[in-house]
Amino acid sequence: MSRTISGKEIAEHSSRESCWIIVHGKVYDVTEFLPEHPGGSKIILKYAGKDATAEYDPIHPPNAITDNLPPEKHLGAVDPATVTQVAAAPTDAEKARLTRMEQRPPLGEILSLHDFEAIAREVLPEKAWAYYSSAADDEITLRENHAAYHRVWFRPRILRSVTHVDWSTSILGHASKMPLYITATALGKLGHPDGELNLTRAAAKHGVIQMIPTLASCSFDEIVDAAAPGQVQFLQLYVNSDRAITEKFVRHAERRGVKALFITVDAPQLGRREKDMRMKFEAEDPAEVTDNKVSDKVDRSQGAARAISSFIDTGLDWADIPWFQSITTMPIILKGVQCWEDALLAYDAGLAGVVLSNHGGRQLEFSRSGLETLVEVVAHLKEKRGLTFPNARFQLFVDGGVRRATDVLKAIALGATAVGVGRPFLYAFSSYGQDGVERALQILNDEFEMSMRLLGARSIAEVVPEMVDASSIHQHIVAVPSDRLYEANYETMQSVRLREIKPRM
Amino acid sequence: MSRTISGKEIAEHSSRESCWIIVHGKVYDVTEFLPEHPGGSKIILKYAGKDATAEYDPIHPPNAITDNLPPEKHLGAVDPATVTQVAAAPTDAEKARLTRMEQRPPLGEILSLHDFEAIAREVLPEKAWAYYSSAADDEITLRENHAAYHRVWFRPRILRSVTHVDWSTSILGHASKMPLYITATALGKLGHPDGELNLTRAAAKHGVIQMIPTLASCSFDEIVDAAAPGQVQFLQLYVNSDRAITEKFVRHAERRGVKALFITVDAPQLGRREKDMRMKFEAEDPAEVTDNKVSDKVDRSQGAARAISSFIDTGLDWADIPWFQSITTMPIILKGVQCWEDALLAYDAGLAGVVLSNHGGRQLEFSRSGLETLVEVVAHLKEKRGLTFPNARFQLFVDGGVRRATDVLKAIALGATAVGVGRPFLYAFSSYGQDGVERALQILNDEFEMSMRLLGARSIAEVVPEMVDASSIHQHIVAVPSDRLYEANYETMQSVRLREIKPRM
Amino acid sequence: MSRTISGKEIAEHSSRESCWIIVHGKVYDVTEFLPEHPGGSKIILKYAGKDATAEYDPIHPPNAITDNLPPEKHLGAVDPATVTQVAAAPTDAEKARLTRMEQRPPLGEILSLHDFEAIAREVLPEKAWAYYSSAADDEITLRENHAAYHRVWFRPRILRSVTHVDWSTSILGHASKMPLYITATALGKLGHPDGELNLTRAAAKHGVIQMIPTLASCSFDEIVDAAAPGQVQFLQLYVNSDRAITEKFVRHAERRGVKALFITVDAPQLGRREKDMRMKFEAEDPAEVTDNKVSDKVDRSQGAARAISSFIDTGLDWADIPWFQSITTMPIILKGVQCWEDALLAYDAGLAGVVLSNHGGRQLEFSRSGLETLVEVVAHLKEKRGLTFPNARFQLFVDGGVRRATDVLKAIALGATAVGVGRPFLYAFSSYGQDGVERALQILNDEFEMSMRLLGARSIAEVVPEMVDASSIHQHIVAVPSDRLYEANYETMQSVRLREIKPRM
Amino acid sequence: MSRTISGKEIAEHSSRESCWIIVHGKVYDVTEFLPEHPGGSKIILKYAGKDATAEYDPIHPPNAITDNLPPEKHLGAVDPATVTQVAAAPTDAEKARLTRMEQRPPLGEILSLHDFEAIAREVLPEKAWAYYSSAADDEITLRENHAAYHRVWFRPRILRSVTHVDWSTSILGHASKMPLYITATALGKLGHPDGELNLTRAAAKHGVIQMIPTLASCSFDEIVDAAAPGQVQFLQLYVNSDRAITEKFVRHAERRGVKALFITVDAPQLGRREKDMRMKFEAEDPAEVTDNKVSDKVDRSQGAARAISSFIDTGLDWADIPWFQSITTMPIILKGVQCWEDALLAYDAGLAGVVLSNHGGRQLEFSRSGLETLVEVVAHLKEKRGLTFPNARFQLFVDGGVRRATDVLKAIALGATAVGVGRPFLYAFSSYGQDGVERALQILNDEFEMSMRLLGARSIAEVVPEMVDASSIHQHIVAVPSDRLYEANYETMQSVRLREIKPRM
């Protein structure tokens, strides 16, 4: 495994029969792995006998290849002098994208988190946009997550001296400058070469907490190493079918100083995200696709989501909870709870809290929003166990659909300790790197200051249930379909119009 | 009737005064039948003295002509050597359609049942699309059937080991690999030359049950013959005014092994489907239409629906139920029940179940969706007779508007035994034949697997009422009409935009 | 007054100082009347010294001029040989309209009442379209009238032998072939030269009742004369400030055989209909308008509505009811009742019924629909007086927004005796004359037959409250305004697309 | 300070190091003030050494410069003979705007308050339009203010002699010809050179009350001086951090005859209005913006709102109320109350009333509309203190979203004494000066007359709660997001179409 191999020799193994590839300067024989590759063999064969690092990097956790190939397939190091880089000429689409990148407005013109998304749409590579923005099925849940906030309205108080307002809070015992945290999202390098490190560094500057994702593009240790002294980080965990791997990971994280463990429980299988899957097809070589027979029944489209998630344990169960409690002293929070019954079970199991979430609308379509679930959880845990919220001993978090400080304050008023924000920060660093994330946090700070003043709340403790009207939160309505014959006949009202002044001849 | 007739002789009978036509190599004198033809005389006269088989086939049950003409009008067999085929040159529209047919994407790119519909719209002959897709009046009910599912949201459970999930079930005592069946739809050959046989064969491969329609393009026996050994089939019945015909049909079906009888009760008269009717006009010879006087008051448009349904008995009554019970031992289910009162009557009459359905939105406009009716039926049958659902002795089915496995699971959670799916399979085989139906079933299997896991249900028995929130199901709301003067004045918000970089001169 | 006047002499009186006009061959001196003309003096001055009949006819009741001018201003008859007709060359817009008139599809292609409106929009003169189609303010009430029907859904019954279905009924003791009547609408000649007579003749053929409008273009007697023997007609009454005129009119109507008196109570002043008013401006001579100073504050726009209604008594009061009861033995019905309190007063006053109506959305914006009011009236009159509906002694009618037989049946199920239909018949005769109205009635008959069968009701008596779900009728909701920044960022889902097959080179 | 300075000398002070400007003929040294200018230093430097009056005037209260600069920076008067005016050539955009100004339709064509807005959009300078029309965040609250009125419907009464209807009322003891007042809006000169005086003069003519804004473009005394003898004016107050300034202002106002003091309590900090902020960027010199580095993190955009409001006291508190009561005998009303709890506190504090308002949607996004708050305030103050409304001793006002007399009447029926109208009058005078405001008031008078008649109310006292149905007022619903794959497949209904007549060859 330590021998040095020439580019020429590698290039000879460029077929399905014998397929070698270079990743990060190491040579691997992936011939036998081809049929097992979650992303299909075709994409690997494209790099057979060549350097695949550029394609490999954003999609895979750094240790994916070493973990999946037996040692004897690790052939050795490549002799760099002998390799010709595959210098792909950028496509017209890519050139246009790079031009748009040049045309980004200065950060000072970004006025809200929506603006980052507007820019990211323009400057992200299509594949990255599809992976980040896509959600389950018809993406109804994705949009409901945002829309749910529109069903909750404020009841602000006046004449409370609000010169000094303070929106800092405590999350699982750790100080946070805002009642929100950066939640875990996968594959950060799809959007920016520094990936998740953009978040780590910006979080340090603004005093907010980052949740490190299992499926980060950067390695766990890179992300922890990038933290400032004393910076608090949490860990999001996808549980591996091989519990030994999970145990090793969790113990390592605790040793590295991670402060809480968020176990994802809403993703025994990663969702079908059709935008992502469809992208896959359209990006493929059209000639090759054309050759497929119409009757080709094999589903070759997996999208990025499934390509990276085959290891997740579908058998995770309540019975596993004591085991987790035995391997770590970190507080354990379940991420992805979606009804009060499971929140109650989590409480009774002695856990530290739950994240009410539907995974950003990316898993089960027609799951309710975290905000809606929050209302029923608060009501039932009061009824069943006498709890009131926010509650230091059992904390409720919500994520999905947040774009404004007002969204966050609605969740806080309804009983959440803090709110997780994901995609907006992805869009921020994809568009502007670390500066983008800092600008996003600054905008949120500005919004918190103003909203707290206008709400009449001088501290997070003063953001109380009476400050919101959530009585419409459970309404899931759809208008009776329109009568299109009638609508087509109806001639719309017109305002007065400017005169057209005719010249006098 | 057994004599052989030359094409030349037939061609002499090409007028309203004497009109012979050839169907499947047999010659018929239809002169006296012209005014009675449900589809109008004009369409027959177009083929007077010629071979009408191509036009006849997709629209008529195979035995329509022999059943409707007295024996003396069956003149004999045509002498094939003497007939010139009417080789119609394809129109420009038809040529464009055939090109689109060539451009169908490979089946692997079809990701959901919606995709089949998107392709079918492009590749179906206009008349077939109009017949399949049309519905009653303003098609509000058609769309409500789908929309009703959007008013029901999930309450998923977590941490239930879901490695093995099983969505097979039992329908009227027969195993089904999924909690759905292929419901009856008419005129399959409009979409594909193999018609309903596409469904039979795909159903066999995937272990689901097909309901054979009375108005199939293929004959009943062809469909039964196409079944695999042991394959379960049900029969949908339109009751004939001539009960002897119905009795013969039912007894024959039972003898051929059909396992259940679904009597359609929501169609004493087939609905006005204006899309279908309008198509008829536009397809007609414009010259001829132009000659019509503006004041022509005769409604010549019937659409395919009425053309094929004049035999249906408008007098069907509860009093007929015992008679049906006397002529068959098959379980009897009423298809088209729309309120709890009738479900209760069906139960009290000793029937095996009801299909809560509004006939795919094709009959009475503003009938509620089957899903909504299900909620009231379950509530009232519990109150009146103490029944709980699903119930093996009295089974509830729902059809209309289903496109996703999540739709099916909502109905199951609310008490249905299984759900009928119709149009999506029509679109699947119209676009891709039997392969299309198989792909559709495979997609549903994928969706069931994922949805069951994400719902936390390992078997259909674990899909329980607590897993859905249907509290908005009875809301039939329409927004207050917009104030268009105000809306027109309101200037929409704009996101930040890319800069346009001016060249430096 | 009986002298004969030459065109030359008349032409000399063509100024504001002395203004004579010819109407129907009679010469009138309108100089002093100019400032009082409800439609403004300008329009009259356009015809000063000329024949104004063509402009006068559709807008005025036939006797308007004779009633409004003192006898000494009736100068005599014109000498026809001496008058040159003003032969206006049709404008380009008018020519295009006449071409569209030629292009009307044959009546057989008209499939629903919506279709008449689609044609009328194209073929009506702009002024007529504006007058017929316009409504109050933002026309929200107009559209709500139709939309209210969409909030009521059916609960149909099955297996009730429906071979014979009968939708005839009795209205105020008079047989009607359908549970609807042709309600009063003004200015029929704007749409068709025969005006309201189209309705009279078609009503006779189909056995329905016509309500004669006070503001008909045809004279009352013309309309009564056009009736077939035994044909039932009702009278709609705008009460004149001069009660002697009203008394004379009512007594005359009763003598002529009119069977019921519908007193309009929702129009003490006719509504502002901005579409109509705006039309007025745009139709005016642009040169003249341009000369207006910007600061011209006089509201010259009245639209047709106000031009014809200045005589209506704003002082009409409950105290007048006994007087009406003293001058006629016809049953008296109040047209335009909008809450249960007034329906109760009408009942207690011994009247024969009420029309729950908001005047087709043309009067008070945000008045509720008749259908919604019906629900509260039925509930409260049962509670207060023990009445059940339909009720022969005190009948409830509804109008506004009806386009389908299903709309009518919803109102019947909720307790109405019959439903008034107005605009659809206007559109029908404006497009196709009497034939159009007959076709409209025939379509309704077809729809009634089918809907009664599918509803499981064999007679109007069997159309009962249990057949509808009106639980959403009082919902007046408006969605929270959309978040346009979010919406603009959201990239819509796309279905699979046809491949574009590239030629092989 | 009294020396006369030559233009030449002034022009030498045109840099950041020494910056003099001319305003209204006076010379000021603003060098040290540059970094403190709320609108940024850049805009001042543009006029360094020049006359800044034209830019200064509409944005600043007249005494802003004298109040903010210490006396020693007031250098003296400019010598007019020595100054060259900066005669800016109008931009193309400005020329197009002036052309549109020429094309305004005559006032007589303006039919509703919406029409003024339609014209103002076209003829206002972009900056003025952005400042007037913008609102907080996504402008959801702005639109909700209008939409809330659509959830309240009328229950009109009939047969009440309505010849004489009277919509005059009493507001805080002062006669008003209508139940509305002109509420305070800032920076009137942005829209018209006469600014707020347009309102004063029109108010006098129509007998309505004007509320004078603290942030008027005209000085307080100019506005009071413009009043007619006996004309009633109120004062809107932004409380200054320096209470001495506020006390002086309030005492001065009372001495000048102002009749009531409306203290704004919903704006301790002025809201982020992104439309306004974005305008700022787009209006800036593109070259300069382009030079900004992408990473420029300083938020240079403040919009007009923040530029003018830095003096407002964020520490205003209930404890300050007695002080206000000690410095004035004017009745005190809190403007910006948003829940019943604060209305109750205001009542208990002995105040004269509250304005239920969210500041025209310009402050806290998702604040409820004043109309909605009104319903809860009336209910709770009845419950807690036995009050009924309208109530002379404690008056309720509402503002935001009003466009029609029907809107006003809904608020009156629900218990308001009067309604504040702001933007529509801004749009009226921006488009047509004082004449526009008069026309707007005349339109409202017309609408009141008609609406009172149609409602059956002869006086404001007869506009009672039973006349409206507000049962849907608290509904904050959002439709379930649409299923776009389904919607895209659904082929809309089509009406019949005109034939295309083919020429006969």
In short:
Four copies of one chain form a homotetramer. With 505 residues, chain A is of the alpha/beta class.
Supply the CATH superfamily name of the largest domain in chain A: Aldolase class I
Helix content of chain A: 25-40%
Straight-line N-to-C gap of chain A:
93 Å
Q: In this structure, how is the largest beta sheet of chain A organized?
A: 8 strands, parallel, barrel
The pLDDT mean of chain A sits at: 90
User: What's the total count of β strands of chain A?
Assistant: 16
Poorly predicted runs of 5 or more residues of chain A: 284-301
Count of separate structural domains of chain A = 2
**What gross morphology of chain A would you assign?**
globular
Radius of gyration based on Cα positions of chain A: 26 Å
Q: Strand fraction band of chain A? A: 5-15%
CATH fold annotation of the largest domain in chain A: TIM Barrel
Summary tags:
homotetramer; 505 residues; Flavocytochrome B2, Chain A, domain 1; TIM Barrel; 2 domains; four-stranded mixed beta sheet; 16 strands
